[in-house]
Amino acid sequence: MNIQRRLHSLPLPVSAIALLSAIALAALAYPSAGWVLFAAGIVAWAKLDARQLLKSDRYGLSPALALLAYTTLAGNDANLAITFALALHALVVFLILLSRHLSEDRTQAFSQQNGISVRI
Questions:
Q1: What does the DSSP 8-state code read for residue 120?
Q2: Could you give the dihedral angle defined by the CA atoms of residues 14, 17, 22 and 25, in that order, rounded to the nearest 10 degrees?
Q3: Where are the domains of the chain?
Q4: What is the value of pTM for the model shown?
Q5: Residue 78 DSSP SS3
Q6: What DSSP line would sit under 5-72, residue for residue?
Q7: CB of 18 within 8 A of CB of 44?
Q8: pLDDT per position as a tens digit, 8-21
Q9: How far is residue 73's CA from residue 55's CA, in Å, rounded to a whole number?
C-alpha cells in the first residue's frame, strides 16, 4: 500500500489532523509544539488537501480548523489581518462546497424531472 492511499484512507485529512493536534497542544500549554503542527497543517493543506476539495467534503474542514488553531495559539496576540484572512478563506471554501452541492442537487432534480412527468 503506497503512502497516497494510506493518506486518503484516514477518516480526516492530514491537514485537519495536524490542526486539531495544534489546538490540543495549545490547550495543554505547549504553544511551541502547537505552532509547529499549525505550520505542518497549513503546508499539508496547501500541498495535499486543497487539490482534493471538490472530491470530498472532508477536505473543507481544514480552513475552519486553521482559523480556530490560529486564534487558540496566538491568544491575545492574534493579528487581526491574519484572523480576517483565515476567516475569509474558510468562508470561500464553504461557499465552494455549498455551490457544488447546490449544483449537484439541481442536476439531479432536472434529470429526474423527465421520469416524473412520464409517471404523471
A1: -
A2: -140
A3: 3-119
A4: 0.76
A5: coil
A6: HHHHHSSS-HHHHHHHHHHHHHHTT-HHHHHHHHHHHHHHIIIIIGGGTTT-GGGGHHHHHHHHHHHH
A7: yes
A8: 666 788 889 999 99
A9: 30
